[in-house]
Amino acid sequence: MASLYGRAPRLVGRNRVFFAAVAGDRGVRSTAARSSPQSRPSARPVASTRAGSACSRPDQDRSQRRPLYRCSPRPGYGYVQVSPPNEHIQGSTWWTAYQPVSYRIGSKFGDRAAFRSMVGTCHAAGVKVVADSVINHMADASGTGTAGSSFSKYDYPGTYSAADMDDCTSPVTNYADRWNVQHCELVGLPDLDTGEEYVRRTIAGYLNDLLSLGVDGFRIDAAKHIPEADLADIKSRLTDPGAYWKQETIGAAGEAVQPSEYYGTGDVQEFGYAYDLKRVFGNENLAELKNFGTAWGLLPSDKAAVFVTNHDTERGGGTLTYKDGACYTDGWKCQHAWREIAGMVGFRNTAAGAPVTDWWDDGGNRIAFGRGDKAYVVINHEGSALTRTFRTSLPAGDYCDVQSGRGVTVDSAGQFTATLGADTALALHTGARTCGGSAGGGDGDGGTTATGASFHVGATTRWGQNIYVTGDNAALGGWDPARALRLDPAAYPVWKLDVALPAGTAFRYKYVRKDADGLVTWESGADRTAAVGTTGLLALNDTWRG
């Protein structure tokens, strides 16, 4: 999983999205990598690059309009789930990838060579790949697929014929009837007879082909429409029995097929986790999340694959997305690249396995809690600022707030004082002890940066754009737009950020604007220059140069 929110984004949408990383039960890891542009053009598309590792979902190159897969560095991401790579029906809408024509690797996102290259690139960055796998059904259409195969409903030459379909050729109508759910057609899509030997062997052959291309695991689409015994048989034929396996098994009271039936095959996706977060953040109080988890009737954490939103729910509005709490633009969002989300990956990796401790709430929409002596988070989901001294179990010392990029000092009693703006958050963990010199903000006594620069720039933006600063000092990103520091738009159209710099530091800097699709635009004119004084913050009051 999208500020991209707009000219003066409130972070409520992002606070909601990162809650899974704060309190979730599954972590990811990867090695680090970085690439850094060396020049500063006036306008240039820049791929998301920053220390760490992650892959984006398949995207399209906007400059050349050609399909490709991308994998770009991000901090701490361990896996990426990619869209189904096999041949499917023609069309630009997202759901066409879920109507298979054959198991040839050739989708609208790229061919076999492109897919293999993407997997290899991700592996080189320390990121594993999970392939979304559509093995319950085939396409409800006729024509020519994305890899050139001719087909019609119930006839997919070289792959399946009508004899390989289930014995019910009408839509699923009764979810209280197991036979109807697992033998009839999901929204009219031809249902494969997964109890048949040929079908099982063919599906296993496809999954093994993906394994041969380096895929590390599978998400089984529409798994509840496939008997668990059939999936167990197919999985037993994999060349890598340890490949990760998670299943889409949406549970609902009164239905004949329940997620718990699939525990023996692999993890199951816990949709209730996402639905509950949507309800609480949207209509209830965050204080209610104190015992969030199995006490709410959610699946056991060792069986559940939790998420905040996915490709289905993001479009249906049933879960939290980038659309919540702010205006937004259409197009690719690259949520994985947002500081507020990317920073929480390292938080989750550090906090994995640590218990929830030091809970505090105001009875409403302000909460704070720790993850043992590993991490601590504060969320202010109210319309006004919150100033408070928080008690943690963290070791004393300096930390980087991975939400804002500002420094925080925890004293010997495990306490720190902070002020959070409306609909913002703060997150600390022992894996981020410094902000690499880019930290401004409070210390343990609620003070401010001793010396440094206080950037203020007047800049009007469109929805989906944000203003950053970079310069010739490492604390400013060393002229690398991927490491530029995002300014706070709370006082829009003035964007602000305090940056800690040693007394007497002379530096050059410029502002850059980033669009939701990754386009970076440098302000015009010569480099700006400044020098930090012997005490306090140097106030820089600038205006964007278009």
UniProtKB/TrEMBL annotation:
This is Alpha-amylase. Gene3D superfamilies: Glycosidases, Golgi alpha-mannosidase II, Immunoglobulins. CDD domains: AmyAc_bac_euk_AmyA (cd11317), CBM20_alpha_amylase (cd05808). Belongs to the glycosyl hydrolase 13 family. It is an enzyme of class 3 (hydrolase). Residues 29-72 are annotated as: Disordered. Keywords: Calcium, Carbohydrate metabolism, Glycosidase, Hydrolase, Metal-binding. InterPro entries: A-amylase/branching_C, A-amylase_C, Alpha_amylase, Carb-bd-like_fold, CBM20, GH, GH13_cat_dom, Glyco_hydro_b. It catalyses: Endohydrolysis of (1->4)-alpha-D-glucosidic linkages in polysaccharides containing three or more (1->4)-alpha-linked D-glucose units. Pfam families: Alpha-amylase (PF00128), Alpha-amylase_C (PF02806), CBM_20 (PF00686). Its cofactor is Ca(2+). Residues 29-48 have a biased composition (Low complexity).
